[in-house]
Amino acid sequence: MNRRQAIKTTALATAACAAMLPSAGARQPAAPPAGSATVGPFRLPPLPYAFDALEPHIDAKTMEIHHNKHHQAYVDNLNKVIAAYPDLQKKSIEELEANLNGVPAEIRAAVQNQGGGHYNHSLFWQMMKKDGGGKPTGELASAMDKRFKNFVMFKLELVRAATGRFGSGWAWLVAGPARELFIESTANQDTPLSAGRTPLLGIDVWEHAYYLKYQNRRPDYIEAWFNVIDWDFVAERYQKAAA
Ligand code: MN
What we know:
It is globular and about 50 Å long. It has ten helices and three strands, in the order H-H-H-H-H-H-H-E-E-E-H-H-H. By secondary structure, the chain is mainly alpha-helical. Manganese (II) ion (MN) binds at residues 66, 70, 121, 204, 206, 208-209.
């Protein structure tokens, strides 16, 4: 890592921590996984709460494996994929995923998969918190009511997208280029960012996100996940979404 990357990484980590402080309370950050010394610019961000913080909705073992193994693997693989591409190593994960056409064709699919995995999961941890759930407030709530009629209708549409995703992927609440809201689903680790949209809220429906506790009952996991959503974080992302 050169100095510029180090500064960028530190700045991003600091910003990420600062962004979480208002609602952090007495969070106990989970310890970083052992033996995860990757060579390359990207790093696994620390989980902003303990592995068991989202119990009983999402169990501690799932969180530990999901963060320390699955997310770490996306980070490690992304670093490997771009090891021979110094120009790409200078880019942020947002820059990479927002402009996949700028990535050489021979590694584009790998950056889409591994980089998308890193980006999506980095967001996912922050979209949840202990004692989350409830409903959005403020400008986001108004915009959602305008678009979906009410929270129940919004939830129905997101649940439909999440349960209807065949195989692995995500369901999202996104803001389009004019900040218009809609629900979409992406396959694998594809991210709405690559299609020019800002992901505000997303649920991982890969089996690794729920199988230990819910086995084949994806709908039960989705319903439980609504209890850990950090709507303050989502509202903040909506505020920052470029109009
Ligand atoms: Mn996942």
